Amino acid sequence: MQRDVFQAIADPTRRAIIDLLANQQLPVNEVAGNFEMSRPAVSKHLKILDECGLVVIRKEGRKRLYRSDPRKLQEVAEWTARYQKFWTQKLDALEATLAEENKK
Fold first, then answer.
1. Mean pLDDT of the chain
2. What's the CA angle centered on 72, arms 32 and 11, to 5 degrees?
3. What residues have CB less than 8 Å from 26, skipping those under 6 apart?
4. How confident is the model over 42-81, as pLDDT tens digits?
5. Domains of the chain and any CATH numbers
6. Full-prediction pTM beyond 0.90?
7. Neighbour-count burial of 9, counting CB atoms closer than 10 A to its CB (0-12 exposed, 13-18 middle, 19+ buried)
8. CB of 5 closer than 8 Å to CB of 73
9. Residue 28 to residues 11, 58, 74, 94: CA-CA distances in angstroms?
10. pLDDT of residue 76
11. 49 and 17 in contact (C-beta within 8 Å)?
């Protein structure tokens, strides 16, 4: 199954993992220690994040250290920016219409 960034960030746990790993590298056990779920469940979330390119894995001996890679989130930022402009224009037009109605 091909996964994409949007699917990965749709889950609040995966977003929390991205945040946790934003400024540090952690092995899966330490990542799991921050969540009230099993280590295998956290491993599944990490696997999805890895498949989507949102985490980088570095091997250090027998350990696998995870860290966030926010570059892939640029795709999300660009997509949402289009809609931010759209809604800003719509809300500005609504504000102008309401202001005009109040003058009457």
1. 92
2. 45
3. 20, 65, 66, 67
4. 999 999 999 999 999 999 999 999 999 988 888 888 888 8
5. 5-103 (1.10.10.10)
6. no
7. middle
8. yes
9. 18, 12, 25, 49
10. 86
11. yes
